[in-house]
């Protein structure tokens, strides 16, 4: 199959970017999008050109590394999928694709499709944990957690840190990311002790990193590869007011 | 020369005795010591966080943008622990025995016992961190069964156990980075090990974004850099998994043990085309309910639902009635290869077998199966476009886990003093075949519970290091810069990826699931030629700052050297054991045939000045259990 790609090229954070066009033929519909870029890069390298800088690691939708924007769709035109879980069978022969990096002030562009998402790590560092040192834990079954609570905690904890929620948000808000972690830990008995400080300092860090405010459009939930619910943002807000 | 430093006394008391007698450093003095940890998967993150909690300064390095991206995230099925919550006869002893037997009696007894022993506390630790393990309606923890055992000792968090455990360790690490004892160096790749008077005292690391190469010194170095199954190119591993850190340490004198023991996972997705870059794993837990079969008639191309029951061969159930579809990985993978090679393979490329849930769905209902494996079925659909509720999954063996790695003693310390190696990067606990759900366990136990004690024991005998003289550090930085410059200067016509694909083909065909002397010898020649052509034909685009191709080329250079040692190791071991199956050594019914008289040892390789290797043997003494034939019939 054939595709025309318009890919965002940008040397570094300070330089100005632009779209460049590449015609590709001989593609297999079963190829994933990163595999298509491997294919293109091999050609570029052999033509003495600079290959497209993009990141991808696990290529099975769990490491959260690979996301970019395809024809305006965050990560993928498929619902709740990462870029690496998107295959060329999702497109038609002869389609034009525009590939560009996630856009958010808190995610500076490093090169081409690569962005810096370390702001998310800094939010976690501010309280996205239960402060238990190695060796302090009591016997596991002494902490009882109901089946449904455990399942809901899992649903929130399933976040892979890809940043799609930020990229899709018109305010570039990290409310779903932050809310998911706050909510995961607030639901569990062992996480309640630190709940107040956690929500205060994580929310403060979120603001400091330059993420926007949540106006509750729900767009984040629609693109999240793990289908994390906006109910977690409600939980975050409730926890915040409680604190 | 090989001293595994196993403490004396009965196996049940060795670790307790060790902890009671190892040296300590008082809390005020701990902050004077600095430890480098390379890798932020389960082993690295948990070790770094635990050391920092004790008060040591910790410098953490990862080539990822964030510590949370490490490949531990991809482990799906679960983590084993001998809690015996099921009251089904489990115990530390049984878990120890299952693991030694699963590894075909080629692991170090004392290490395995300790892993089983520490498994209890690990589950406690993970729960306290908030890892959302599956629960019964009563609120108690739930378990399931995995291959190679007859009890249910696997704890799990849907199909994301690795991701959830890593979140726990990563969060603990980020907490320490906030407190200030941990300094994170993301997007940094270790290029070399700094050795002073025979002791590991630092690493050379390259900032992958800027290209800057620097020496970082420390009082001890921990490598927790994972496995190297990606050397086979098509594997279940992530694209960036590599052997460079351990290989560079090996070249500085660290011994490499059992390099050829690579596990092939039986339930990965089959290759669909030449463009393919990886093979996705489907959790082993699926074999709890899925039945594996192929058509009895070879070359039968009918769709699965048209093949009647009596024309199907449920070959695992037939050959291994007592373990059935839950036979261990090495055996299941080999059995699948045998079926595929004999013309019974299914799917578009006839390179797969069926994993069928029809009977389980009829028995328990679709809702129950969906609850158990829903996300795996969903993932399968995303990747293949096929619905496993309606048709059987297509699965095939794929390169997966490295049982081999850097040699370590009981303290997880290499022969190079001060170099500690944790998790998949070391050898020891899994012998010649790892049991499912023991990998997450080993990584966690090494990081949380073992290395903090053994590293402190080592540091107690060391004077805190001072920064090295600038001229010394210039030399090692120059050597490493030169190495990259040389790769950039070749300017041939083949990319690193193309070399990797060729390397993978050689290893799959000649040193994969089945090995044989003649083909191994051929592989040796082919690998030599491939390596020669690498230095003539490699093409890396110019650019010394952010350059992913340069990263790949440097890793590829190390893979090409390691591949030669892998083949050497497979050639030397004239027996079959676990995942290492030599066609010349099999029982009349085609099972692996060990040779305990001559090969009850671990092959430990030392690199010589000229790049050749010298073999040392660590004899495996089994004092607590009787070595027997490994049968799952």
Automatic annotation (TrEMBL), chain A:
Pfam families: Fer2_3 (PF13085), Fer4_8 (PF13183). Residues 150-179 form the 4Fe-4S ferredoxin-type domain. It comes from the Bacteria. Its cofactor is [3Fe-4S] cluster; [2Fe-2S] cluster. PROSITE patterns: 2FE2S_FER_1 (PS00197), 4FE4S_FER_2 (PS51379). One of its GO terms (molecular function) is electron transfer activity. Keywords: Oxidoreductase. Its EC number is 1.3.99.1. GO terms for biological process: aerobic respiration; respiratory electron transport chain. It is an enzyme of class 1 (oxidoreductase). Belongs to the succinate dehydrogenase/fumarate reductase iron-sulfur protein family. PANTHER family: SUCCINATE DEHYDROGENASE (PTHR11921:SF41), SUCCINATE DEHYDROGENASE IRON-SULFUR PROTEIN (PTHR11921). This is Succinate dehydrogenase iron-sulfur protein.
């Amino acid at each position: 199959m054939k595709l025309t790609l318009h890919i965002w090229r940008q040397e570094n954070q300070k330089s100005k970017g632009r779209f460049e066009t590449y015609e590709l033929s001989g593609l297999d519909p079963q190829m994933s999008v990163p595999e298509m870029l491997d294919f293109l890069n091999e050609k570029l390298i052999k033509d003495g050109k600079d290959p497209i800088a993009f990141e991808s690691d696990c290529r099975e939708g769990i490491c959260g590394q690979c996301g970019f924007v395809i024809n305006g769709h965050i990560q993928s035109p498929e619902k709740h999928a990462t870029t690496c879980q998107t295959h060329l069978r999702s497109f038609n022969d002869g389609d034009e694709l525009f590939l560009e990096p996630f856009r958010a002030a808190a995610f500076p562009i490093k090169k081409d499709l690569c962005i810096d998402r370390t702001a998310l790590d800094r939010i976690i560092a501010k309280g996205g944990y239960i402060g238990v040192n190695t060796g302090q834990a009591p016997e596991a079954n002494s902490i009882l957690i109901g089946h449904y609570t455990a399942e809901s905690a899992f649903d929130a904890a399933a976040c892979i840190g890809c940043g799609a929620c930020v990229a899709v948000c018109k305010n570039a808000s990290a409310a779903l990311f932050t809310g998911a972690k706050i909510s995961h830990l607030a639901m569990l008995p062992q996480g309640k002790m630190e709940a107040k400080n956690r929500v205060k300092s994580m929310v403060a860090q979120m603001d400091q990193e330059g993420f926007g405010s949540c106006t509750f459009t729900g767009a984040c939930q629609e693109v999240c590869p793990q289908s994390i619910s906006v109910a977690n943002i409600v939980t975050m807000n409730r926890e915040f007011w409680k604190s | 020369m090989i001293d595994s430093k196993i403490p004396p006394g009965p196996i049940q008391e060795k670790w307790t005795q060790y902890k009671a007698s190892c040296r300590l450093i008082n809390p005020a003095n701990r902050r004077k010591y600095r430890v480098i940890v390379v890798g932020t998967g389960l082993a690295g993150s948990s070790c770094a966080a635990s050391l920092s909690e004790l008060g040591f300064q910790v410098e953490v390095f990862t080539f990822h943008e964030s510590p949370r991206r490490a490949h531990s995230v991809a482990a799906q099925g679960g983590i084993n622990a001998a809690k015996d919550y099921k009251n089904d006869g489990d115990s530390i002893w049984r878990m120890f025995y299952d693991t030694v037997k699963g590894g075909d009696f080629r692991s170090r007894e004392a290490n395995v016992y300790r892993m089983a022993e520490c498994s209890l506390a690990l589950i406690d630790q993970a729960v306290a961190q908030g890892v959302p393990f599956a629960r019964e309606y009563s609120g108690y923890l739930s378990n399931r069964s995995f291959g190679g055992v007859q009890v249910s000792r696997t704890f799990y968090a849907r199909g994301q156990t690795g991701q959830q455990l890593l979140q726990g360790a990563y969060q603990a690490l980020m907490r320490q980075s906030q407190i200030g004892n941990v300094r994170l160096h993301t997007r940094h790749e270790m290029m070399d090990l700094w050795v002073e008077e025979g002791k590991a005292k630092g690493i050379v690391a390259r900032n992958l974004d800027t290209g800057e190469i620097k020496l970082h010194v420390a009082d001890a170095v921990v490598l927790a850099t994972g496995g190297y199954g990606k050397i086979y190119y098509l594997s279940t591993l992530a694209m960036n998994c590599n052997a460079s850190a351990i290989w560079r340490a090996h070249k500085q004198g660290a011994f490499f043990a059992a390099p050829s023991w690579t596990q092939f996972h039986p339930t990965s997705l089959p290759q669909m085309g030449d463009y393919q870059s990886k093979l996705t794993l489907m959790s082993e837990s699926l074999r709890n309910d899925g039945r594996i079969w192929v058509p009895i008639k070879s070359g039968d191309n009918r769709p699965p639902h048209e093949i009647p029951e009596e024309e199907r061969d449920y070959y695992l159930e037939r050959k291994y009635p007592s373990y059935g579809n839950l036979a261990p990985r090495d055996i299941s993978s080999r059995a699948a290869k045998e079926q595929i090679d004999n013309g019974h393979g299914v799917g578009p490329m006839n390179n797969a077998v069926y994993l069928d849930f029809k009977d389980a769905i009829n028995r328990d209902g679709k809702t129950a199966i969906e609850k158990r494996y829903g996300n795996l079925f969903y993932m399968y659909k995303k990747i293949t476009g096929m619905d496993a509720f309606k048709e059987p999954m297509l699965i095939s063996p794929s390169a997966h886990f490295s049982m081999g790695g850097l040699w370590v003693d009981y303290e997880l310390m290499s022969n190079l003093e001060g170099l500690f190696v944790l998790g998949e990067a070391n050898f020891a606990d899994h012998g010649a075949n790892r049991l499912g759900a023991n990998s997450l366990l080993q990584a966690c136990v090494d990081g949380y519970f073992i290395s903090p004690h053994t590293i402190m024991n080592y540091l107690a005998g060391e004077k805190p290091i001072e920064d090295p003289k600038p001229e010394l550090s210039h030399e090692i930085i120059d050597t490493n810069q030169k190495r990259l410059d040389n790769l950039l200067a070749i300017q041939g016509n083949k990319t690193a990826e193309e070399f990797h694909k060729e390397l993978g083909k050689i290893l799959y065909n000649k040193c994969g699931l089945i090995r044989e002397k003649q083909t191994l010898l051929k592989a040796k020649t082919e690998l030599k030629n491939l390596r020669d052509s690498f230095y003539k034909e490699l093409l890396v685009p110019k650019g010394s700052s952010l350059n992913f191709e340069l990263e790949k080329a440097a890793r590829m250079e190390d893979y090409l050297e390691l591949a030669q040692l892998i083949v050497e190791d497979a050639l030397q071991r004239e027996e079959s054991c676990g995942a290492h199956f030599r066609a010349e050594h099999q029982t009349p019914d085609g099972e692996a045939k060990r040779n305990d008289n001559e090969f009850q040892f671990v092959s430990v390789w030392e690199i010589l000045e000229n790049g050749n290797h010298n073999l040392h043997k660590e004899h495996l003494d089994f004092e607590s259990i009787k070595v027997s034939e490994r049968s799952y019939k």
